[in-house]
Each structure stands twice: as C-alpha cells, then as structure tokens.
Amino acid sequence: MTKLDCSVTGCMHNAENCCCKNTILVEGKTAQDKCDTCCGSFDEKKGGTFRNLFKTPESRLEVECEATNCVYNTDRRCSAEHIGITGGNATVSMQTECSSFQKR
Fold this sequence. Notes:
Helix content is 0%, strand content 32%. By secondary structure, the protein is an all-beta fold. The protein has one domain (2-98). The strands form 3 sheets. A 6-stranded mixed beta sheet has the order 5-4-6-1-9-10, with no helix packed on it. A hairpin with a 2-residue loop joins β7 and β8 (77-78). It is globular, with a radius of gyration of 13 Å. The mean pLDDT is 91.
C-alpha cells in the first residue's frame, strides 16, 4: 500500500491530510507531466465544513493509476512508497494532480 498525503481540502474525503477512502484512482492516461493527472476519486466538499464521517482517515491505501507514462505505474497500480495529491480548495477533479508523477 502507498502512503498518501492529500492537501485537497476542497474534497469531502480529505481529513487531516489523509483520505477517507481505502482506494483512489489517479487519472491521466496520456499524462506527460503531473499537471496532466488528477484524482478521479475527488468529490467536492459542499456546505463548508462537511466531511466524510463514514470512514476514518487512511494514511496508506491502494492507488489505482491510469497514468501509464509514470515510472510508478505497475499494471495500473501505483508502486510508489509515498505520493501526494495536491489541489487545495479544488471544486472539480481537474483542479487536482498527483504531485508524485514522474515520466518514464
């Protein structure tokens, strides 16, 4: 499992810079740079302070990855020990990115 730091405070799954899902999807099938990727599991936090109360924050989770040009992509799974998802107060998934993407 990959250690995930998520700074996307605009996502309802974000709590304490962790994700409240046990798996996420990084999109960016033809990505050449990290700005070409995004978190496909992003859901906008609406109503200000609402957050996902159904699950506790996970610091390690499964990361499915469509960014086939990334050195960490192994059979559509992220093999990196540690990744970061950035995007601050994003309102749509395209405003997020996998900051750990490295082109093959």
